[in-house]
Amino acid sequence: MELFFATSNKGKFAEAKAVLSSAIRLRMANLELSEVQSCDTSKVAKTKLESAYAKIGAPVIVEDTGLSLDAINGFPGALIKPMVEAIGLEGIMKITSVYGTNRAHVSTSLGFTDGTKTRIITATVNGRIAGGLHGKNGFGFDSIFIPRGSSKTFAEMGIREKNKNSARGRCFRSLSAYLSRR
After folding, report:
1. What residues pair up with 129 in beta bridges, in sequence order?
2. Residues 61, 74: contact at Cβ < 8 Å?
3. Pairing mode, strands 60-69 and 76-77
4. Alpha carbon of 119 to those of 27, 31, 45, 89, 111: distances in Å?
5. What pairs with residue 60 in β-bridges?
6. pLDDT number for residue 173
7. Is residue 130 exposed (0-12), middle (13-18) or buried (19+ Cβ within 10 Å)?
8. Count of C-beta atoms within a 10 Å radius of residue 181
9. Domains of the chain by start residue, with CATH
10. Low-confidence ranges of the chain (pLDDT < 50)
């Protein structure tokens, strides 16, 4: 099966390839997609999926990941990218320090459609924000998020370990299982 992944993020593409079945030929599609402004990753994934399928017209997946901070009532969620652009990872760590809680969770929503069947898969991983930047792997907020049960940030993990512990990895495993049953 040939499947397009509408993303410009090479790291996300590599993580997807590492999880998805070898029976799936994954192709990267770098597209500008319509994206609703929402803290909810599933709403963002749904609009991105509709936009991607309209442009590609072939089986496609999209993904959206958000970081929610308990210190500020779950904000920013799916709006993490503009927040990081505005205040940096250091600003996020400062927020958790000022508010006295570093608890956070990462939610990923993965959308799939082949034009007849559509599926949105969501997973969440609880954890905490580190007190400093740690690790050189990954991207985005990987250097500050430590998943529950680990002492390492995602950026300190290799791709296999990260995929085992991340919400994105869980979503891609669920998608792989779904596609193998079709």
Report:
1. 145
2. no
3. antiparallel
4. 19, 20, 10, 32, 6
5. 4, 113
6. 95
7. buried
8. 5
9. 2-181 (3.90.950.10)
10. none
Q: What angle do CA 95, 96, 102 make, to 5 degrees?
A: 160
CA 61 to chain CA centroid, nearest Å: 12
Distance between CA atoms of 72 and 76, rounded to whole angstroms?
Answer: 8
63 sits in which H/E element: strand 60-69
pLDDT at 25: 93
Query: What CA–CA distances, in Å, run from 25 to 2, 32, 50, 120, 122?
Result: 5, 22, 21, 20, 23
Closest CA to 121 of 111, 113, 131: 111
Taking alpha carbons only, the member of 24, 33, 35, 17 closest to residue 1 is: 24
Residue with tokens 């999880």: 19
Reply yes or no on whether 64 is catalytic: yes
Tokens representing 68?
A: 């929610």
- Active-site pick, 40, 64, 114, 142: 64
> Alpha-carbon distance 82 to 35, whole Å?
13
Amino acid letter for position 72 = I
Q: How many angstroms separate the CA atoms of 95 and 106, rounded?
A: 17
For residue 96, how many other CB atoms are within 10 A of its CB? 21
